Amino acid sequence: MVENKRGFRGLQVWQKAKALAVTIYQSTREGELSKDFGLRDQIRRAAISICSNIAEGDERETNKEAVRFLYIAKGSLAELSCQVEIAHDIGYLSSEQNSFLQQECQNIGKMLGALIKIRSQQSKPKKGR
Predict the structure, then answer these.
(1) Band of the pLDDT at 5, cuts 50, 70, 90?
(2) Reported pTM
């Protein structure tokens, strides 16, 4: 496992995912989306799931376990992206909000992909000479 003295809080991808969750909460407090409890709550759960699974994965004992939770985070990210697009299409989010949130999802997805690759390589056994 990569040594990180600040734990998951030191991971830039966790910081960005947490900021996205805060933005989602702020974006869903007002307007029509705030009254659609089902979609609002689902969007919020997906956003929280991203940073929560990054944190949980980072605290696991092995890189193999960490990678599993990073993949779960990536799945929650895709879920959030889909839900944001639906909220936009039905008029709950502006085009500007949708564009910003989709760009953040894309950026976090790339970061998760890179971290998954690093952690996956670290979990492979070293070949003898």
Answers:
(1) low
(2) 0.89
